[in-house]
Here is the input.
Amino acid sequence: MDIHHRHNPFERYADDSVIHCRSKKDADRLRIELEKRLSEFGLELHPTKTRIVYCKDDDRQEDYPETKFDFLGYTFRPRRSKNKYGKHFINFTPAVSNTAKKSMQQEIHDWRMHLKSDLALEDLSHMFNPILRGWVNYYGLFYKSECILYSNR
Here is the structure.
């Protein structure tokens, strides 16, 4: 990517990646090139995970079937934002994904805190604060209101 596609910023983690293209035409062409390159090594793009997503916002208002995707526990999609002057606009940004929320909820449920009534609040905080702090530090970077640890739901 660095050699042949410098104009396409990309992020990769393990076998997942996101590649940014300026147009659908560029995305289609890059997909074909990637399929060809991977096939040289006996590899292929995942048939259901590989998709072209339109990053819809106030500057890009066309209609496409795919306007959101999940990557590293975040869902990237159009969201209402507010600028420093208080004006609202639509921005394509990340927030904690529903899958990550369910995973956190399940882990909290598995702590079975209702069975730990013999422990002091300080003991519970020593047990669970490192995990909660990690979630807040990771998922709280964008749209804190979407994180289950901040919401009033």
